[in-house]
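As a warm-up, study this chain.
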Amino acid sequence: MRDSGDRSGPPPDSPERAADPATHELLASAVDEWAAAIVANDAERIAAFMADEWVIVSESGITDRDTFLAFVTSGDLTHSAMQAITPPRIRVHGDTAVVTARITNTAHYGGDRFDADEWTTDVFVRRDGHWRCVLSHITPAAASEGP
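Now compare it with the structure written out below.
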């Protein structure tokens, strides 16, 4: 879910940056791999990035992990594209991390196509040495004003 933009994040002395830059790279890679699993419509791979209590908050409300994965497994929800149009903003606070990026994606739900341009925020927690997402929040991006 990241383009080839800057991976360095905030300055090393920033209170918002983990002492270990490898943590940022690990989280950025996890987000990329999660997006690839979503585009592959692979529920098992998608689930590997989610904590059991994961939920997604969107304009339609809150959807829990099991419901989301059931939509993918049934084929009712598929994604054919997902791409970051901004580099991820990663902030690590101990064993919690917040990753925000602007994402475009193409999904099909119930046979209807949806093209989205959204700001996504994922909250990860580190448990037993692994980062798992506990919350995803999506907000439609404002339409660009142009001539």
